[in-house]
Write a structure and sequence with these properties.
single chain, about 350 residues, alpha/beta, Rossmann fold, Arc Repressor Mutant, subunit A, 3 domains, five-stranded mixed β-sheet, three-stranded antiparallel β-sheet, about 50% helix, about 15% strand, globular, DUF1835, DUF1835 domain-containing protein, DUF3658
């Protein structure tokens, strides 16, 4: 296993894998990590990064991006391409991802860089396994959500990447690059280009009528969205909603830690066009922050636990595809649940 190279697509995942190798939790020669989030910003030309740099300048929530920051950003890309170029046919690549646009876009870019070489590549989807205990169930959206001590259990679910799948992935990536939108989401089993306002309703329905720290709204959107998205992106949309009059602010504009926000009448009017969103907002106004956080988490975990139990009980009765349709789990999650039970 000394020729195994683990590839992942976020800084937090990289740290987990390096620790897992160091502590002999998993075997591997090294970890190759990609840190940029390609689910956000322009991706039409990744050889010239000027569009992406301008994007980051527009959404930064802390400070202006310096020349040193730009230099390091370009240097990281150069180093990553160089690491990919040094891979050989003797290397075995374990490419780790979850069902989120950040992981999958990073994986697509890596595969694009590797397309002229022949590798032994295995894909490991951490979202295909349901984590559960006596009280709750959990499906990782991304590799960054998997703890170092748990990484090894996923390796047995690896799947070798064949030529047809490789070709399909590159075609999807090319389509996303040609569309060149500023946001990509994971929906219906694949990554899709989306409109930049995708999270606006989520932002408004988590914004109070009284001034609260903007970080609180951003945190709620991040924590309870079905998508994996950065705080920079959400904060960037908050700033746009302020400019459009849907949100009011106090403090220093553009600095998250120094801003408080509240929804305006115009924002409430916008929410009123979405029955589910306005009902959510009204209910939220009546609850305390602790109650909101506890109840949301409790409902989600209980609902998933119930679906997993139903799927488990149906394994000897119905086909895997039917169980997946009835419970809302993916076919891979049901198959892996069956595999775990048979051991």
């Amino acid at each position: 296993m000394n020729n195994v190279i683990h590839m992942c697509f976020s800084a937090s995942a990289s740290g987990s894998f390096k620790y897992a190798i160091k502590e002999n939790i998993i075997k591997g020669k090294k970890v190759i990590s990609f840190y940029d989030n390609l689910s956000e910003g322009k991706i039409g030309n990744l050889k010239n990064l000027d569009d992406r740099i301008e994007w980051y300048k527009s959404i930064s929530h802390t400070k202006e991006i310096s020349k040193e920051d730009i230099y390091e950003y370009k240097r990281d890309y150069h180093r990553y391409r160089r690491k990919i170029a040094k891979l050989t046919r003797e290397d075995i690549i374990y490419m780790w991802y979850g069902e989120c646009s950040e992981d999958i876009c990073g994986m697509m870019y890596a595969l694009e860089l590797m397309k002229d070489k022949c590798f032994n590549i295995y894909l490991i989807n951490v979202s295909s396994l349901v984590e559960e205990n006596e009280y709750e169930a959990f499906i990782p959206k991304s590799v960054s959500e998997v703890m170092s001590k748990d990484i090894n259990k996923y390796i047995k679910f690896k799947k070798e990447l064949n030529k047809n799948t490789y070709k399909d992935i590159l075609q999807m990536w090319e389509a996303l690059k040609n569309q060149n939108q500023v946001l990509r989401i994971f929906k219906d089993g694949k990554v899709k280009s989306s409109y930049k306002e995708y999270f606006d309703i989520d932002i408004l329905k988590n914004t109070n009528k009284k001034f609260r720290k903007v970080a609180r709204t951003v945190g709620y959107v991040l924590g309870y969205s079905d998508q994996k998205v950065s705080d920079d992106y959400i904060f960037g949309r908050v700033k746009e909603l302020i400019k459009q009059g849907y949100i009011e602010y106090t403090g220093k504009f553009g600095i998250m830690r120094e801003m408080e926000i509240k929804i305006t009448n115009k924002g409430i009017e916008m929410l009123s066009n979405n029955k589910e969103a306005i009902e959510f907002w009204k209910e939220r106004e009546e609850e305390t922050d602790n109650e909101i956080e506890y109840m949301r988490t409790f409902r989600e975990e209980c609902a998933l636990k119930e679906r997993v139990n139903i799927a488990r009980n149906l394994l000897d009765v119905l086909e895997v595809e039917v169980i997946a349709e009835k419970t809302g789990l993916t076919i891979e999650q049901v198959k892996n649940l069956e595999m775990v039970m048979s051991k």
